[in-house]
UniProtKB/TrEMBL annotation:
GO terms for molecular function: O-methyltransferase activity; S-adenosylmethionine-dependent methyltransferase activity. Coiled coil: none annotated. Pfam families: Methyltransf_3. The keyword Ribonucleoprotein does not apply. Keywords: Methyltransferase, S-adenosyl-L-methionine, Transferase. It comes from the Bacteria. GO terms for biological process: methylation. InterPro entries: Cation-dep_OMT, SAM-dependent_MTases_sf, SAM_O-MeTrfase. The keyword Methyltransferase applies. This is Methyltransferase.
Amino acid sequence: MAFAEAYGAGTIDDSAEAALQWSRDCAREAGIRTVTAGTGAALSLLAAAADAKAVAEIGTGTGVSGIYLLHGMRPDGVLTTVDLEPERQTFAKQALRAAGFAGNRARFIPGRALDVLPRLADGGYDLVFCDGDLMECLEYLAESLRLLRPGGVVCFEGVFADGRTVDSSLQPAEVLRLRELLRTIRESTALVPALLPVGDGLLCAVKRG
């Protein structure tokens, strides 16, 4: 096991670890990929470093990433999480409760992210975590820049695309969109970016003040 994975697995308590395992099992049965322990540890760290009170998540899944995000957030912080599949959010609610988080720590909104995000407050968020439709990643970035306060952090999961992002052979449209996302963030004067080699690649950027 890689150091990042082993270290990430040991940063939460036993009840949260059991909830994570249950959530991962639910995701596996549903054919959903979840963030790795290393990626989860990075998300907890970023939420803590941002002293995050308000976090928006695109792609609830079965709650794995939500547990990690809430673990790093302030005790009074609220996670707003959006997913197209209400059934997945039902699993996520159970997972967060089993991990010891009160019901008022998370706001679950079913629906398409690009329909929901415009309804969220400008500058009202400390961190935005994007783990949704790769074809919409550039639109997620635009919405994230609006949602984040100065000094806030945006993160994109899965930017390595199993190594296809740097593969010179013919690639599908979603990989081309990821390349465009990487280029856009790298060239932006409004962001300070970093690409973390955890999981399948975690692209992070801080919004300048």
